[in-house]
Backbone:
């Protein structure tokens, strides 16, 4: 119960890594705002977790929607201790054929949405005297393996982490990034098998990661066990890249 009485805000919480993160924190005593685009979907996904979970509908690419979601968290729980920025989207586009709308959507959710949640979350954390922000990037940010908009957005997340980790440290807020490799999530299921097989072939441990493994890293970074860690990229990728 190392997160007993903490309040955690998790985006992309209806499935995959986000849902695994929600379950991990609830099991360890936290109260969790499970955030996803569709409130009914995330409510159904977390219905077996009881009153410890507050399902919240939120479009993280919209600043006002994020502010509204944070206000609901403060109203329900009175505090915020941890933000896990997991929500993400992808689109399989060759660079020269990338539609403007696809670029804007991927950057808007993966990077701008992370920025909004970091900013509004930090404002709420300041009232409590500190907290932990955990951003989810991707090994694609350093390998360049993937669509240009996705790689650019995830690289931007790593830069955002470093910048705000320095700025927020005096406020007692730590900011770190988890950098997963290929992970067994619904988003991965949308990638062509040829790409997936190529990625797995490049993983020394010989397999994709599981959402629960990423959730365990998030739990560590939110805990007092990582109290002297901030501004770091924590790679959980089976050894496919050293960051």
Residues:
């Amino acid at each position: 119960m190392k997160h007993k009485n903490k309040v955690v805000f998790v985006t992309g919480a209806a499935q995959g890594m986000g849902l695994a993160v929600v379950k991990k924190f609830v099991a360890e005593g936290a109260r969790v705002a499970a955030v996803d685009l569709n409130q009914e979907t995330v409510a159904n996904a977390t219905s077996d977790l009881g009153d410890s979970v507050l399902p919240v509908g939120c479009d993280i690419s919209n600043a006002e929607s994020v502010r509204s979601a944070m206000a609901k968290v403060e109203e329900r729980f009175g505090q915020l201790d941890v933000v896990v920025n997991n929500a993400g989207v992808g689109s399989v586009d060759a660079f020269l054929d990338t539609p403007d709308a696809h670029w804007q959507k991927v950057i808007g959710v993966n990077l701008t949405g992370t920025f909004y949640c970091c900013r509004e979350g930090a404002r709420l954390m300041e009232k409590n005297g500190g907290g932990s922000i955990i951003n989810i990037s991707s090994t694609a940010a350093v390998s360049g393996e993937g669509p240009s908009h996705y790689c650019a957005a995830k690289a931007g997340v790593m830069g955002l982490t470093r910048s705000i980790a320095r700025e927020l440290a005096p406020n007692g807020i730590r900011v770190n990034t988890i950098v997963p490799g290929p992970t067994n999530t619904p988003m991965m299921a949308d990638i062509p098998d040829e790409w997936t097989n190529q990625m797995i072939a490049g993983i020394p441990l010989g397999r994709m990661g599981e959402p629960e493994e990423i959730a365990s890293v998030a739990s560590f970074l939110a805990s007092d066990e990582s109290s002297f860690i901030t501004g770091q990229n924590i790679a959980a990728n089976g050894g496919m890249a050293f960051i």
